[in-house]
Design goal:
Layout lengths: L3 E7 L2 E8 L9 E4 L9 H5 L6 E5 L7 E2 L8 H15 L3 E6 L1 H12 L4 E7 L10 H18 L1 H13 L32 H6 L10 H6 L4 E6 L6 H13 L3 E4 L19 H23 L1
Amino acid sequence: MTAITKTLDAPGATITYDVRPNDASTEPPLFLLGSPMGASGFPTLASYFADRTVVTYDPRGVERSTKADPATESNPDQHAEDIHRVIQAVGGPVDLFASSGGAINALALLARHPEDVRTVVAHEPPAAALLPDRDAALAANRSIAETYQQGGFGPAMAKFISIVGQRGPIPADFFAAGDPDPAMFHLPTEDDGNRTDPLLFQNMLTGPSYEPDFEALAAAKDKLVVAVGEESEGQLARRGGEAVAERLGLDTVIFPSGHGGFIGDEYGPGQGGKPAEFAARLSEVLAAHAGAAVAAGA
């Protein structure tokens, strides 16, 4: 599929999105998104859905989507309204697959604009605010953000990787032994002076601390599938997904691989997951959910 790139204006930002059209399809468009991951993380997954129109986008402040003031944070409600604008532009409702911070933004969208979607597959939202160890988890996020402001990308990303890989609750003294060495993760040790990184600044504090509107989500939960990775057991993002599902009385759906299971070679050889298996599972889940919706409405 050849992508057609478009832009739209939003308060404080210009949003860039891509449409891979299939005019012969009778299925709703499939919107694939992450946060802070932009559209560049989804070409492999999109390639498995050539039978329908596929939409991807860059969240505000990420890649091609610019912000009027890059020094401001972005939050899930802003992202939800941007996603809503894209859906209005391409024509909804859509099926929506959202991963990581994108899954938190998708929960905000579902609560605010349930009419925009037929199905939302929320894959591993790192909803730290919903966890029993929320205080320690959110404190660790604040520590990462503070390290970014003080030392830049390398030291902060090293701490982030350490948290992401942790299995089980986040200890209150997680960084008590000292900060990890960026060189261990092949990260830069010198500070480039940038303080607008989409992950370490724009979304580090606003995403994991976000508490979804569960009253609104409960009214729309028939449209929601909460997905977790088979290789992510105990990790914060999977636990966040499990916490969302528990609050709504839903079962989680297991997807192949881990947190980045849908990624191919976008970030280099050996950096991806199991995209073919992941796409097959996503296709199966979307078909089953659509079929159940039809049966319930019959």
